[in-house]
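Hey team,

Filing this mostly as a record. A colleague (T.K.) asked me to run one chain through the structure pipeline before their review meeting, and I want the input and output archived in the tracker in case anyone asks later how it was produced. No errors, nothing strange. Just documentation.

Input sequence:
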Amino acid sequence: MDSRSNDTAISRVAGAIAEPARTKMLCSLMDGHARTSTELAVIADVSASTASAHLARLKEDGLVKLHTQGRHRYFSLADAHVAKAIEALMVISRNEQAGFVSTTPSRLQLARTCYDHMAGSLAVQLHDCFIDFGWLTLPIVGDGTYQLSVEGEKAMTGLGVDVATARAQRRLFACSCLDWSMRRPHLAGALGAAVLQAVISRKWVSQDLDSRALTVTPKGRKELSGRFGIRIDAPELKRSGGACA
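Output structure:
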């Protein structure tokens, strides 16, 4: 793609995201769930016909994809790249503040989904623990990807993460994602997605059906404290001793 075509393509995608109703639709799909055009119309506060027109534009520009099941039509984000771009825009949109003070609702700030992986203060703390334990090596400057150590692979397997399956996916295996509410990185990529599924399957957290929020269960509080030294006194989260236990 030449420079002029690239400029045009970026401008078009930016224009698709910039329309307020379409922005609301895209942000609502950041929880990884697929929704109908009727549901997205309610979320965006527009008529059904207007919602259909917006979704057609988003689909044409590769930002959402359509899933058809019988007579039902569902829309979801096209892929993790779109989710990462939206998350990055959330960070940029708050850069005008002289001193950053998170205004994210406490439940979302504690733990939420970022498309297919975990975000929020809990995800940031887990990311830091994985680094402190030596499970993940720090990203190469300008790269943002991580390597999983031998100890890390054993530990992840112990948590119920299928490392081999995560490695086999046609996407980045492990990478950092800047958390827009915390302004610090959490774990993304195939490994980040696998970690989220592991903590859900172990019932450490439960996922809301109609929002991005994740709720830490009593079992999760106990395991997070015992394994990682992360204490959760709802809605706050603290690391005991300032480091992973």
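Quick notes for T.K.: The radius of gyration is 19 Å. Confidence is low (pLDDT under 50) at residues 98-103, 241-245.
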